Amino acid sequence: MKRPTTGRSRHSGGPNVGRPGFAWALPATVFFALFAIVPLIGVAVMSFTSWSGLGSPEFNGLDNWNKLLGDKVMMQSLWLSALLTVLGVVIQTPLSILLGVWAAGQQKNRAVLSAIYFIPLLLSSAAVSVLWRALLDPNFGIPGQLAGIFGGDGNLLGSQAGAIAVLTFVGAWQFTPLHTLLYQGAARSVPPVLYQAAEIDGAGTMRKFFSITLPQLRNTIVTSGILMVVGGLTTFDTVLILTKGGPGTDTTITPYYMYRKAFQSFDFGVGSAIALVLVVIATAISLIMVRATGYDKMNSAQEGI
Amino acid sequence: MSNTSRWLKRAVAASAVLALGVTLSACSGAGGSTANSNRPENVIHVAVYGDAGNTVEQAMVDKFNATSKVQVILDRIPGANYQQKLQTIISTDAAPDVFFNWGGGSIQPFVKANLLLPLTDMIKTDPALESSFLPSVFNAAAIDGVPYGIPMRGTQPVILFNNKQVLTDAGITAPKTWDDLLASVKVLTAKGITPIALGGADQWPTLMWFEYLFDRVAGPDLLTKAIGGDTTVWDSADGKAALTKLKTLIDAGAFGTNFDSVSFVDGGSPALLRTGKAAFELMGSWEYSTQQTADKAWTETNLGYTGFPSIADGKGDGADLVGNTNNYYSVIKATRYPDTARDFLKLMYSDEFVQAQLGIGNLPTTTTTEKFLDQAADPAYATFQFNLVKDAPAFQLSWDQAYPQSASADMKTAVSQFFTGKLDVAGFISAMQAL
């Protein structure tokens, strides 16, 4: 007769309960180091060199950085990135909270409608951009055919404001479903007992939404906010396909400008410097967001229940 | 765990995620030795721009392999971003021995990096490698007088296409002079037709207007000087006059208002011409096959074509051309079998090659082309093009290919901003001087 081995499991009590050792993190760490940290160091080094892809990179000190500092397009691109990010957050957050809370209901029609609504999420950004580019063609697309509504010549991508509006709209069309999904899950996990208690106290729908649902979604709002901000700062494919950074350089956001410098002009030094700027800015912003919202304390939303 | 170390981990993690996408591609293909002992044995690789024209290239390779000990392998590189892919591999051991290019600025960085084989010795052994081609075409792949490319495929001049039906309805004929063009624009805008279709979203179709205007007004020397480093020519009286003329055309509404969102690649501007919403389009000779694919019957009856109008008081000849002078094969220095490469290149002036290229609608620039013109896919169009090229005193390579690739993005931005009015004459001049 065999007795269950108990030797090891005995030691697993105490303060370390359920916390596996470092070995568990090893595969991910190695992967990370190889494909993230090492290339990052490579980019940092390359930002001090001049390299066209031919021959060997040559160190040129701070040349790339000086060039960037005096580059109007670069400075403009940072503002454009910020603007597109802010517009994305401001438009997508309320939409996806409302939709998510609505979709959290158990009714059949809601399940069907939200399933349909999630379809954009299944499409790649490239496909989405190609689709919208065709739909927005000024002569043969929707604006051309419905000139009465869109007015003028249907040239939606021909002005800076128009192009930014299109990018924001397409971004919202594509990513609101993802955030809706987050909010739907979060809204479903709000304990019903809270609503029941509120109903006994006589709270109406609005009151329940603002006093229970929203506060309970706080962590999700932060998660989705960070996703939106980091996603917004690194937007690339929609710009590449829809506007090519144009008209002129009017929608050349920082990641697109990096691509243009590195892969169209073969100036990998300046491209790397732009990449590094992006890394620093996005890291700083997500750290500030995590800190400012107290998300890093990882407190449960259900504390005190 | 302390708060600080958690912070640090997060910081590292966040930066790493961002850097991943950026760097994976940027870091590939550095250095690499080019000693030919590292290269494959008994084969040479020939890289070509992958498209419908590959059938002829494959046929040539098959023919060559039937008799050669060293075999040729044709690598078809899908067309989009060909230049970028080439630049990534050309300094590595995986570089093709022979590769497709556009001559001029497209190979200049490789020549500077000492990667290409000067073809002088090959031509000494076999003078027909030079003498079989039209000189203006052959010379467009010479850098500082040293030949680096053998013409292959065909020439692609930029031509002013028109919709014959629209012109007839408007009671006008294809313009012979700049003033004719301005008059036609006036008639067409009054009728509510966009005079000229322009795929402004692609930017390179916009560039074609600059290429012709500068050639007609300032003559072909201006660009040669500018590329040579004398950027003051942009600021010359001729340069300004060309820009002013172009500005007049834009302000007259010749391109409509929404050209910025129209793309040639997506089929937008060719459709404008075909459906009669526009009367003209300035485009490379491939417009013909583009229209033919879309509507064969319409193309045969309604697609008109003429050379670019002449400008009376300009320095450039009214018969000058711009466009893709030709495509070329160049050979890398590291190749293990230069003699095989030479023998393969000899096929590029064979009768069989010329006939096959004509059959698929390309226009080769050998001295023998003329006698096979009646075998072309469309003899009238082929003859028209061939005469344009033969009679042209100068054939300017498209600016984006004459300049090194590194200047191309900024040039195209300046060009499109001038058309939308964001850059004025002075602004455009300083943008070109900064290239």
UniProtKB/TrEMBL annotation, chain A:
Entries under InterPro entries matching the protein: ABC_transporter_permease, MetI-like, MetI-like_sf
**Domain named ABC transmembrane type-1: which ranges?**
78-289
Superkingdom: Bacteria
How does the protein associate with the membrane? Multi-pass membrane protein
Q: Keywords in alphabetical order, please.
A: Cell membrane, Membrane, Transmembrane, Transmembrane helix, Transport
Q: Give the signal peptide range.
A: none
> Where is this protein localized, as stated in its record?
Cell membrane
The residue ranges crossing the membrane are 21-48, 78-103, 115-136, 156-175, 221-242, 268-290
Keyword Cell membrane on this protein?
yes
The family database entries (Pfam families) matched by this protein are listed as:
BPD_transp_1
The record, for Gene3D superfamilies, names:
MetI-like (1.10.3720.10)
Give the family per the record.
Answer: Belongs to the binding-protein-dependent transport system permease family.
Q: Show the PANTHER family listed in the entry.
A: ABC TRANSPORTER PERMEASE PROTEIN, INNER MEMBRANE ABC TRANSPORTER PERMEASE PROTEIN YCJO
The name on file for this protein is Sugar ABC transporter permease
Q: Which organism is it from?
A: Cryobacterium algoricola
UniProtKB/TrEMBL annotation, chain B:
Entries under InterPro entries matching the protein: Bact_solute-bd_prot1 (IPR050490), SBP (IPR006059)
Keyword Lyase set for record:
no
This protein's UniProt keywords = Signal
- Region forming the signal peptide: 1-30
Q: What name is this protein filed under?
A: Extracellular solute-binding protein
Can the keyword DNA-binding be found in this entry's annotation? no
Q: Which domain of life is it from?
A: Bacteria
